[in-house]
């Protein structure tokens, strides 16, 4: 047995090819470790081996590891060359542990710094076909490329849209920065960050999101972020705006409710810029009539609805795309459909008018259509459908004309031009309408005295009800007539009218002025016997009105219109007071007895019975004194006196009751 004893290094690679045409065993060695290799060659003698160097090469490799480091950080680096023969060198730091191997850990103590690694590798093989055998080696050198480390603050993060937006909170988010150890978060109500939300100025955050709480509902907020590491703080990120949803509005009762529309109302929300309303026939909103319909104010007209139907409405407040929770729900019941076909209308009311024409059956294989058109005068069309129209009347009279067009086409019948033959039948219906009228008239005259009445009468008819008014105030009275003056009081004077209602339509009459005039006072009669004319009695009205009229029995005494009257015959006397308004009041009767004898006078008359100084007499003729006043004050001290009369003598025949109205003592 032949043994080759080689004092060589650790075997690295047994796959090295031999030179062409040689047989042998190939080895790759590293010169750093010594081993002994025994090669036993059968039937061979121990023979010296010749060692030859075939080639020397230099190879460059990269170091992998962070280049942006902290001055007090421990960082690992990896070399891609041959690990066993690698030797590291460093500037600005300390290698933790051995400086040999495929990777090392460095503690940097100054920035900037550098790092490098080198190594040598020999690849050897034995050619045994040669004699003596030849041992070949390639000596290769490995050098790292230049590797420098620096220390820098992180780059600015990129903020992204917030999530979890609630009434008073949201979650701020941003993308990670590789060199950032932590982040600083700012939150403000101003895009310029002049002020900060309490607790959110440079708030340190370790992750890439942060919940922001304790905010104001409906507020608008802004946030930004900076990255932080041991080398400093990055610049500011971009700014993200977050609009929190407002508080929910409060739905109020619907107003202006009609048969096909209403106005939805809700409270204003100070932070809202818009509102969204839902309307449904279901209180759980399984379907919608209006869905998220926008309104810039706190009310919205909801129309195009069905008469007599109950609708449910709710609202949300919104600002910049963020909406509040739903409000409470309010129900609104529309008025029933207006009465149909009414011709005796009420101005201001709404009525329905339907097309009555019905088309005949459509022939087989034909196409038939029926349409209706509506023309209205004296009113306003407020809603319409294929075969009806709702009209609010604005005039006392009006008209609805309904035109029904029935068209039938025969697809199999063509005219000479190749067109389908069609026939059209047009039916027209005219409906005249008018509001019922009210006529009010009175008994004549309308100005009467106390104790008299004025009868007011309105027109009558089926289904009419009445309400009477005085000076604009309702008074008792539900009949077609009303009597003014029954209380015998001039306080009943005023303007009277009546409201007559038919089919729910109240119509007022014109006014009639009724005057109840006050009567004058009841005349009081004072009686006194006349001494100078025995048997005669003077009657005097003590409370005369504008004029008086004396009566004897039931007969009016002609010319007896003075406040005194000389009664010269036995009878029952009375007087009538007449006021300036023409109303009269009679006195009670006064009984007079006596029948004085006739007497005659010429140009003088003797007045006797003068007994005291205080007695004076005036003999009157049609209110004119024709006798002078006499009395004992003339100094004569006599009981009788002859006095001069008017220039023409009064004879007994002419000295009548009319002439001698009174002979007064005073």
Describe the structure.
It contains no helices and 57 strands. It is mainly beta and 666 residues long. It is elongated and about 210 Å long. The termini are far apart.
Give descriptors for this structure.
single chain; 666 residues; mainly beta; six-stranded mixed beta sheet; elongated
Please outline what is shown here.
The protein contains no helices and 57 strands.
* Poorly predicted runs of 5 or more residues: 1-46, 597-666
Q: Tell me, what's the shape? A: elongated
Please outline the major beta sheet: 6 strands, mixed
Range of strand content: over 45%
Q: What's the end-to-end separation, in Å?
A: 202 Å
- Radius of gyration, in Å, reads 66 Å
- Total strands: 57
Mean pLDDT: 80
Helix content: under 10%
Helix segment count? 0
Helices and strands: which structural class?
A: mainly beta
Write the layout of secondary structure elements.
Blueprint (H helix, E strand, L loop, with lengths): L1 E10 L12 E3 L2 E13 L8 E12 L1 E2 L9 E6 L7 E5 L1 E4 L6 E6 L4 E15 L6 E11 L2 E3 L9 E5 L6 E5 L7 E7 L14 E3 L3 E4 L7 E10 L2 E2 L6 E4 L7 E5 L5 E6 L7 E7 L9 E6 L3 E5 L6 E10 L2 E2 L6 E4 L10 E2 L4 E5 L12 E11 L1 E7 L2 E6 L3 E18 L5 E16 L4 E3 L4 E3 L4 E5 L6 E6 L2 E3 L5 E4 L9 E9 L2 E4 L3 E6 L7 E5 L7 E5 L5 E6 L2 E2 L7 E4 L3 E8 L5 E3 L3 E3 L11 E4 L9 E5 L2 E2 L15 E4 L15 E6 L1
Parallel strand pairs: 4-11, 29-35, 37-44
Antiparallel strand pairs: 1-3, 2-10, 5-6, 6-9, 7-10, 8-9, 10-11, 10-12, 13-14, 14-17, 15-16, 15-18, 18-19, 18-20, 21-22, 22-25, 23-24, 23-26, 26-27, 26-28, 30-33, 31-34, 32-33, 34-35, 36-38, 38-41, 39-40, 39-42, 42-43, 42-44, 45-46, 46-49, 47-48, 47-50, 50-51, 50-52, 53-56, 54-55, 54-57
């Amino acid at each position: 047995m032949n043994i080759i004893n080689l004092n060589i290094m650790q075997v690295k690679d047994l796959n090295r090819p031999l030179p062409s045409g040689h047989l042998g065993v190939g080895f790759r060695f590293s010169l750093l470790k010594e081993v002994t290799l025994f090669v036993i060659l059968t039937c061979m003698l121990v023979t010296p081996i010749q060692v030859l160097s075939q080639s020397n090469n230099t190879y460059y490799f990269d170091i992998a590891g962070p280049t942006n480091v902290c001055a007090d950080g421990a960082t690992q680096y990896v070399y891609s060359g041959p690990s066993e023969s690698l030797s590291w060198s460093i500037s600005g730091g300390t290698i933790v542990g051995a400086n040999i191997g495929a990777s090392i850990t460095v503690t940097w103590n100054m920035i900037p710094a550098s790092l490098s690694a080198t190594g040598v590798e020999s690849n050897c093989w034995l050619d045994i076909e040669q004699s003596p055998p030849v041992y070949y080696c390639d000596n290769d050198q490995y050098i790292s490329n230049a590797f420098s480390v620096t220390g820098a603050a992180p780059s600015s993060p990129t903020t992204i849209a917030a999530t979890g937006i609630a009434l008073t909170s949201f979650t701020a988010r941003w993308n990670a920065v590789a060199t950032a150890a932590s982040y600083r978060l700012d939150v403000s109500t101003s895009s310029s960050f002049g002020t900060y939300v309490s607790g959110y100025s440079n708030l340190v955050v370790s992750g890439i999101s942060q919940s922001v709480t304790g905010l104001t509902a409906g507020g608008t907020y802004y946030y930004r972020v900076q990255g932080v590491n041991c080398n400093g703080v990055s610049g500011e990120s971009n700014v993200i705006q977050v609009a929190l949803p407002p508080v929910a509005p409060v739905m109020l009762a619907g107003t202006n409710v009609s048969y096909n529309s209403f106005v939805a109302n809700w409270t204003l929300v100070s932070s809202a810029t818009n509102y969204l309303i839902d309307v449904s026939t279901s209180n759980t909103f399984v379907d919608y009539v209006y869905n998220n319909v926008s309104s810039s104010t706190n009310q919205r007209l909801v129309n195009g609805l069905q008469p007599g139907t109950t609708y449910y409405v709710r609202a949300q407040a919104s600002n910049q795309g963020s909406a509040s929770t739903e409000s409470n729900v309010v129900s609104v019941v529309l008025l029933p459909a207006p009465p149909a076909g009414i011709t005796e209308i009420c101005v201001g009311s709404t009525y329905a008018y339907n097309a009555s024409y019905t088309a005949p059956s459509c022939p087989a294989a034909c196409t038939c259509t029926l349409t209706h058109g509506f023309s209205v005068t004296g009113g306003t069309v407020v809603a319409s459908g294929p075969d009806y129209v709702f009209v609010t009347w604005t005039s006392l009279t009006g008209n609805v004309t309904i035109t029904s067009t029935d068209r039938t086409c025969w697809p199999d019948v063509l005219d000479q031009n190749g067109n389908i033959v069609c026939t059209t039948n047009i039916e027209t219906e005219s409906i005249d309408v008018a509001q019922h009228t009210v006529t009010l008239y009175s008994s004549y005259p309308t100005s009467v005295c106390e104790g008299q009445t004025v009868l007011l009468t309105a027109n009558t008819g089926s289904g009419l009800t009445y309400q009477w008014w005085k000076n604009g105030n309702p008074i008792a009275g539900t009949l077609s007539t009303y009597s003014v003056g029954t209380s015998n009081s001039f306080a009943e004077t005023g303007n009277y009218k009546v409201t007559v209602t038919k089919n729910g339509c109240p119509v007022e009459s014109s006014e009639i002025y009724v005057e109840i005039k006050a009567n004058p006072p009841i005349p009081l009669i004072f009686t006194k016997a006349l001494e100078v004319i025995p048997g005669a009695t003077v009657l005097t009205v003590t409370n005369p009105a504008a004029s008086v009229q004396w009566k004897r029995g039931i007969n009016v005494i002609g010319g007896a219109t003075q406040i005194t009257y000389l009664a010269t015959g036995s009878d029952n006397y009375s007087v009538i007071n007449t006021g300036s308004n023409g109303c009269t009041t009679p006195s009670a009767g006064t009984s007079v007895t006596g029948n004085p004898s006739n007497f005659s006078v010429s140009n003088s008359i003797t007045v006797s019975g003068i007994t005291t100084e205080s007695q004076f007499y005036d003999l009157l003729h049609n209110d004119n004194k024709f006798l002078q006043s006499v009395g004992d004050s003339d100094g004569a001290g006599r009981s009788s006196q002859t006095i001069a009369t008017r220039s023409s003598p009064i004879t007994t025949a002419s000295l009548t009751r009319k002439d001698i109205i009174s002979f007064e003592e005073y």
